[in-house]
């Protein structure tokens, strides 16, 4: 497999090598690829926490919604009133 990084990606790799934290390009890429599952999990957890905080915020304030609408459903849907 041939990989052609963009100039900004090459710069990041060079910075990581210059920092002394990595000994090779392969090591930088292996570490970056290994971190992908953690990044995705963090994104999901961050999203859940953001929804929880929005629901808490809305629950502490008087917000007028159309009949049958719940703030938690609207937040999860990403709709705005």
Number of discrete domains = 1
Count of helical stretches: 4
Overall outline: elongated
Strand content: under 5%
Helix content: 55-70%
- Give the strand tally: 0
- Structural class estimated from helices and strands: mainly alpha
Q: How big is the Rg?
A: 21 Å
The helix/strand series, from N terminus to C terminus, equals HHHH
Textual characterization of the structure:
There is one protein chain. By secondary structure, this protein is mostly helical. It has one domain (7-77). The chain has 4 helices and no strands. The chain has helices spanning 7-19, 25-34, 36-59, 71-77. Helix 3 (36-59) packs antiparallel against helix 4. The longest helix has 24 residues, at 36-59. The radius of gyration is 21 Å and the shape is elongated. The model has no long low-confidence stretch (mean pLDDT 80).
How does the SSE layout of this entry go?
Blueprint: H1 7-19, H2 25-34, H3 36-59, H4 71-77
Helix pairs in contact: 3-4
Concise overview:
With 81 residues, the chain is an all-alpha fold.
List keywords for this structure.
elongated
